Amino acid sequence: MSQQSLWKTFCVLMICALGTLLALPNALSPQTLDRLPSWFPTQTVNLGLDLQGGSHLLLEVDLKTGLHDRLNFVLEGVRKALRAEKIGYIDLGLSGVSVTFKLRNQADASKAERAIQQTDRDLEVTHKEGTMSVQFTSSSLAARKKHIVDQSIEIVRRRIDETGTREPLIQRQGDDRILIQLPGIEDPGRVKTLLGKTAKMTFRLLDSDMPEVSSPGVIPPPGAEILPGDEKVKDKTTYYVVRKTVLLGGENLVDAGVHFDEYQRPQVSFRFDSYGARKFGEITSRNIGKRLAIVLDNKVISAPRINSTIQGNGVIQGNFTVQEANDLALLMRAGALVAPLTVLEERTVGPDLGADSVHAGKYATLLSVMMVALFMVVAYALFGVVANIAMVFNLILLIAALSIAGATLTLPGIAGIALTMGMAVDANVLINERIKEELRLGRRIYQAVEAGYKRAMATILDSNITTLIGAGALFFFGTGPVKGFGVTLSIGIVVSMFTAITLSRLIVIYGIHWFKPKTLSI
């Protein structure tokens, strides 16, 4: 049998040493990790909700409201199209998921239909009993609903990431629901508050003649509406008379943060993109002396007076606490939800349950490893010891891979590790049986070992690849616990092929080379 090349030996030993180094932080306490030098790896496997404890939220996306905002744009497009073609109409408005209106002259129906469809090819127009209805096509409606949910998931993810929550699980469930799992968060109240706000920000002017009123029942001037203030003065809400015209939207904000004024009061500073900065400069230069209303979710959070032209940056002042200022800046950075979210289900998993689950999982994994190791020693003597060494490194490299990937370990994931430990010695069983068969045929030790590893290779690859395909399907198409099981099983299969074939072969080769046995203990 040929000697193992030095570079292959070096590579195998380096992989094992590096894997041990990367897996080691999982066995150390946080206090010990803090005392280690900066170059030492500190990344550990993240524990999922069922192990670490935390909060579980199920949200429902209000698709009806989300579509309503889009239908408002369709309504404006219909109005412009009809006016451009000089087509008379009455009663233009929204009805469910349609824009409806009546023509003054029914002979203009075909002309109106062509004009509307030219504005958007995703619209279809129906004419019944003198009323024309404009709605999205069925395929376009389904696509827009999916887009609303996808946008909501992305904004929810950005808002939760801003809070510093580690490894949250955020995924779609059904057509209009979002599942959120927050490991380590025992009180989801603040997260619910952040997610419950639509955070739709607009910049509008207060009415010059009547900027504030004492009651929401006052009739506002034409083109204005009354909105409540976000803060109270002497336990009374201030009501502002705000012009309906939106001068600038929050979509042009690129950054927001918390700063403190000279009296150490928290305030929120914000910055626009190039278009927003130019637009904001024009708005403030044309309206010096007037009051600008900053409206968030139909509440006036600030109404400062414009004293000079503002280029690109602004400050929101108010009676904020530091937490309120941080939350407002977070919402401004994350962007506005395209549809409101409703909490349908809320559960909290306590840390005691997580600790018990971790303990039970560790016990089950260690017990499976010990039983497999005992069987291998009894069945294959010294070759069983070699297989057990490979199995131990399989576990070490598996934990190292999970740490590098930043994977989240769940109870099904622990089950996947336990299963991987049992499967890790499958390849060694095939190799050892093949070596025993070669020895019975009268081959010499070197030839029997060489043939055993070489001829068992095809069977090992076939069995592991087919299992890997199944594990990969669980990972790509599964969700939640099923996906966690697929992650650990997939990584475990790949690692076990390395340890069972490469590492065990290296140990056997050097063992025979150094000790030159007359017979094999197998």
Please tag this protein with its features.
single chain, 522 residues, alpha+beta, Multidrug efflux transporter AcrB transmembrane fold, Gyrase A, domain 2, Hypothetical Protein, Haloacid Dehalogenase-like Hydrolase, Chain: A, domain 2, four-stranded antiparallel sheet, 14 helices, 20 strands, 22% strand, elongated
Report on the architecture of this protein.
- The protein folds into three domains: 6-51 and 350-515, Up-down Bundle (Multidrug efflux transporter AcrB transmembrane fold), CATH 1.20.1640; 55-62 and 144-345, Gyrase A, domain 2; 63-137, Eukaryotic phosphomannomutase, cap domain (Hypothetical Protein, Haloacid Dehalogenase-like Hydrolase, Chain: A, domain 2).
- It has 522 residues and is of the alpha+beta class.
- The longest helix has 55 residues, at 351-405.
- It is 52% helix and 22% strand.
- Helix 1 (6-23) runs antiparallel to helix 10.
- A hairpin with a 2-residue loop joins strand 5 (123-128) and strand 6.
- The model has no long low-confidence stretch (mean pLDDT 82).
- The strands form six sheets. Strands 7-8-2-19 form a four-stranded antiparallel β-sheet. A four-stranded antiparallel β-sheet has the order 3-4-6-5. It has a four-stranded antiparallel β-sheet with strand order 13-9-16-17.
- It is built from 14 helices and 20 strands.
